[in-house]
Structure formats: structure tokens, C-alpha cells
Amino acid sequence: MAAALHILHLHSSFDLGGKEARAVRLMNLFGDRARHTIVSGVPEALGARAAIAPGIAYEIAQDPPPLTGKPSVARYEALARYMRRFDLVLSYNWGAIDGVMARRVFGKGMPPIVHHEDGFNSDEANGLKPQRNMYRRIALAAAHALVVPSATLEAIARKRWGQPAGRVHRIVNGIDVARYAIRPDERAIPGFRRKAGEVVIGTLAGLREVKDLPMLVRAAGGLSGKVRLVIVGEGPERGRIEATAAAMGMADRVHLPGFLPDPARCVGLFDILALSSRSEQFPIAVVEGMAAGLPIAAPAVGDVPTMISPENAAYIARGHGEIWLRDILQLMVDNPPFRQSLGATNRRKAAAEYDEATMLAAYQRLYGEAVGVPDILG
């Protein structure tokens, strides 16, 4: 058996969100063909490690060179020296772009690097920063490939970051669609019990500013009818969400169970999957809601209007804010057959286009090409 590949993962943070869930799923599929070293740009943000399968050889890097800081030849050289001990480097989002720049500045003897961009934080949610665009343009010239999940990001990479077609690979996020058709178990959400006649609005999200979850609370608080809001995830915005719920007089109707490792067991407990983000590209939470047969209530961010079914797309909020989202949610809350009809169209589209087998095959081709091992994922 060939020696296991040693793969370095440079994460902007490693709390479980969409990109981390996908990265961990791919780590699990490597099995004993690879061992992994994980660097988190936010050292204490390591929640995604809970999803790594037993038996996977991995370690959290201890005292690696910092991923962020002022541009510095010394820091790039330290990163390059660290990266040379690996066979393949996978970097994720703006918070890890300095790993790519280190390869650009000190490329001799460096392993191939595949950079992944999944979207933007709140500081670029309303517009990309010109200096960052230039930095990406320079750094990404050293990447073997740039992976993006959405047509929106693909266009940005080509036009704003100057990346040639052959370097940019659009691989849409996929999941094990069949698992989301299982009968949901209320015990999967700690502390949750559905009440008679209640409509449950749910979302899966890291509790970060860009997700604008206080806005979702305000939208839900403006609804008429018996409504419960469940927000599955963890992060620094928990306090703001709880404060907003209290201010809206609905603290007893907003449930925050924290991070749950197996969303397939709980998404089917929702009646509506809601999104409130100010910036998204191809959100896995939307695919998960579609696979569970739910209607999607969301603003028109990223590829959301085209990734959901055409029937559901007619009911996407055209602006961002609680009034827009509230009105879409009210239509769905008031009409159960309408919700079920939209959900059925979404489930069919998820099964046809977003099963993880297609996604995994694309990553196998790309990573295998980078290191010259065609069957890298077995």
C-alpha cells in the first residue's frame, strides 16, 4: 500500500459551518489513505473536529505560523517553510489566503495548493474590498486550482480576481440526499417539543454576524399565528439573538439548541427552512432543507434563487430585511398545502442535482490531479 498522503488544511476557522462540514466529509472519505493536519486561523474555533470520523488520522497543529497579520516576507517565509513538509495543501476562504501568497512568494519546493472560496464575511457582505481583490489576484496565481460553489463566485473569480477558466472549478455543494428523507425524531433537537398547531421555522447556521439571525428573529416575531423558531448552530452572535428574542417578547418561542452534528436527523422537524444571511453563495443549509422536502424562505443572495426549484423561486424575498422575509414567511405559515407543494418540488430538485456523489467525484478528480494520484479518495 502506498504511503498515506499528508494533507495540510488551512482554515479561516474550524467551527462547524458549511465549508467545514464539507471538508470533514472529504477527510472522512480519505480514510487511511491520508493523514491530516488542521490549522485554524482562530485557534479556539475547533468545533468541527467533533464531526471527524473515528479512526481518521488527524491532528490540530500546535503553534503553526500565524495565518493572518500584516503582510511580511518573514511571515510568508515561515508559512512556506511549514507547508513544505506536506504533500498537498488545502486552504479555505480569505482568512487562509496568506498560505497561497506564501506559495507565490516562496514557491520552490512547495506542494500543490488548492484554495477554496465559499463566500464572504460581514466586512465584505455589502461589497468586495478593492485591496483584497488585488491581493487575491496576485496570490491565486500560485494555486493549482481555485474551487468555488456558486456561479456568482465563479463570475467574481474570473472578472474581479483575474483567474483563468482553467484554474477556476465550480463544484456545487452536495449532501447524502436520501438520508434527509428519514422520519425525523424530536429527540434529535435537545429541549424541543412541538406543540399542537404550531408551525416550526428552522435554520442551520453558524451564529455569526453575516448570517443576520437577529433579523430572522424580528421577522418571525412579526408573524401572526402560532410559530416557533429553531436556530441550530453555535457562535459569537448567540447573545444578540437571545437579546432580540427577549425584546420581541418571544424568548419562549426561539429555541437555540447549539451545534448538532447530524442535521439529517432534525431538519425534517421544521415546516419551513429560513435563511437571513446578508451574503451567501451556495448554502448547504438550503440544500438540506430541500432534501427534507421543505419550502425555502430567504433573500435573493448568491445562487439561492436558481438553486431552489422554480416554483419556490417565485417566492424568494427580493430585498433584505425583516419586512421582506416576514411577508414570505407569512404566506407559508398560512397555507400548509402550499408549503408541502413547494417542499416536494425542492426535494425532487435536490435528488436530481445535489447528491453528494457528484460533488465527491469532482473533488476526487481535482485533488487527484494536483498530486498525481487519480484514485485519491478510493
What do you see in this structure?
- With about 375 residues, the chain is α/β, with parallel strands linked by helices.
- The chain contains 13 helices and 12 strands.
- The chain has a 7-stranded parallel beta sheet, with helices on both faces. A 5-stranded parallel beta sheet has the order 10-9-8-11-12, sandwiched between helices.
- Helix 8 crosses helix 12.
- The radius of gyration is 21 Å and the shape is globular.
Mean pLDDT: 93
Question: Helical region count?
Answer: 13
What is the number of strand segments? Answer: 12
- The strand order across the widest sheet is 3-2-1-4-5-6-7
Radius of gyration: 21 Å
Strand percent estimate: 5-15%
For this structure, the quaternary state is single chain
Find the structural class using helix and strand composition. alpha/beta
Largest sheet report:
7 strands, parallel
Percent of residues in helices: 25-40%
Q: Low-confidence stretches at least 5 residues in length (pLDDT < 50)?
A: none
Q: What would you call the shape?
A: globular
Which series of helices and strands comes N to C?
A: EHEEHEHEHEHEEHEHEEHEHHHHH
Amino-to-carboxy terminus distance? 12 Å
Structure summary:
With 378 residues, the chain is of the alpha/beta class. Helix content is 35%, strand content 15%. Helix 4 links the parallel strand 5 and strand 6.
Question: Helix and strand layout, with pairings?
Answer:
Layout: E1 5-11, H1 18-30, E2 34-40, E3 57-60, H2 73-83, E4 88-92, H3 97-105, E5 113-116, H4 130-139, E6 145-148, H5 151-159, E7 168-170, E8 199-204, H6 213-221, E9 227-232, H7 238-247, E10 254-258, E11 272-274, H8 284-291, E12 296-297, H9 304-307, H10 310-313, H11 322-334, H12 336-353, H13 356-371
Parallel strand pairs: 1-2, 1-4, 2-3, 4-5, 5-6, 6-7, 8-9, 8-11, 9-10, 11-12
Helix pairs in contact: 2-3, 3-4, 6-7, 6-11, 8-12
